[in-house]
TrEMBL record:
GO biological process, any: coenzyme A biosynthetic process
Lineage of origin: Archaea, Methanobacteriati, Methanobacteriota, Stenosarchaea group, Methanomicrobia
Domain Ketopantoate reductase C-terminal: 181-307
Catalysis: reaction(s): (R)-pantoate + NAD(+) = 2-dehydropantoate + NADH + H(+); (R)-pantoate + NADP(+) = 2-dehydropantoate + NADPH + H(+)
Name recorded for this polypeptide: 2-dehydropantoate 2-reductase
Task of the protein: Catalyzes the NADPH-dependent reduction of ketopantoate into pantoic acid.
InterPro entries: 6-PGluconate_DH-like_C_sf, 6PGD_dom2, ApbA, KPA_reductase, KPR-Related, KPR_N, NAD(P)-bd_dom_sf
Source organism (scientific name): Methanofollis formosanus
Domain Ketopantoate reductase N-terminal residues, every copy: 9-155
Enzyme class: oxidoreductase
Enzyme Commission number(s) of this protein: 1.1.1.169
Amino acid sequence: MTEPERPVVLILGAGGVGLSLAGALAGVARVAVACRPRHAAAVRRDGLVMEGVWGERTVREIACVAGPGEAPPAPDLVIVTAKGFDTRAVCEEYADVLRGRTVASLQNGIGNEEVIADYAGTVIGGTVTTNFSVVGDGHVRVKSQSSPMVFGLWSGPDADALPRLVDLIRSAGILVEASTDIRSAKWSKSLLNLSVNPICALLSIPVGKAADPRLQRVIREIVSETFAVMDAEGVGTRWPSAEAYLDHLFAVQVPDFATAYPSMYYDIQAGRRTEIDLLNGYIADLGERRGIPTPYNRCIADLVRFREIDERK
């Protein structure tokens, strides 16, 4: 009996998340990943080196592509892991590949799925609470996974796309769940990123330091503004109020990630653009449209933008 044909997966955005996911899925799918030249050269020469909770191994069954001309013409699934500020540009570049396909977003921030929907057939939103890092060229480490990946159908006609994706991710040994309300899940994940990450990035401190009472006051205002905007947008989460989320943040999430530095910290240190416009900047813009004051979110977003420019000089 012949084995069933493995699905073809194209991953767009080969940072820590994209490369780690490519390595994990290579055992259950035919994987192509859009890589920076330095990662592509290392993977082609030595394979992708993986460390951490997703396994210790070298993966050679990955195709690195430099552009849409090298990509599989009709992938069964496309997963976008690029930084949120690059979503539109990536979709434009790979527009011919994405047209009519199932595309999943596994990105930080809010608003990526709306962009992808302009190009794809069926869109699946996703969240991941996992500590990824790039150790070197073609070398990644998955330090921890504190909760399962979550995927949910965002838009499009293919209702079976979600269970197929979840089954594929699970078959690779990754914790994953399906959500019936992915919008709520995306906002729930973004609460941690917008409440703690910018402060840790600005002050060059690990997440655990956010429990300092002087910082807690600022974080409480950021979260209160965000819940006011969420209420106006009709978005709910499993936390019924800002206070309920703040209790969870300081009792569970901050201790869980106490020694970790957020990715925004590394972006600023490396002089890279951050995703602040899809986090606090997004909240501030929505608040302005809704007539809701968001001075703390606006201030944090402006400070991070200043650091971005300052570090790139």
